[in-house]
Design goal:
- The chain contains two helices and five strands.
- It has helices at 44-54, 70-77; strands at 4-9, 15-23, 26-29, 36-39, 61-63.
- Strands 4-3-2-1-5 form a five-stranded antiparallel sheet, with helices on one face.
- The radius of gyration is 13 Å and the shape is globular.
- The relative contact order is 0.24.
């Protein structure tokens, strides 16, 4: 299975990339051999929010693959 790279943005603009994939009817969120497991029906953005909160990451935005951050949108408009 190929993982999609989602991004979690904190309030200061820091960005963390988090792999998300579906495997065997489960949504796997996080890197390495110990990802967090969610039901495959769980929206990836919501699963990623739960993941970020359990990791105690400050959270401003959750971005799907290819989705620009607020600051990237501002730069593109200028």
């Amino acid at each position: 299975m190929t993982a999609e790279m989602w991004r979690v943005v904190d309030g200061r603009g820091g960005v963390r990339e988090v792999p998300v994939r579906v495997e065997g009817g489960l949504l796997l969120v996080g890197p390495g051999p110990q990802p967090r497991y969610f039901a495959s029906e769980e929206p990836p953005r919501l699963a990623l929010m739960h993941y970020a909160l359990t990791m105690r990451w400050p959270l401003a935005e959750i971005l799907a693959p290819g989705e620009p951050t607020r600051s990237e949108k501002l730069v593109a408009r200028q």
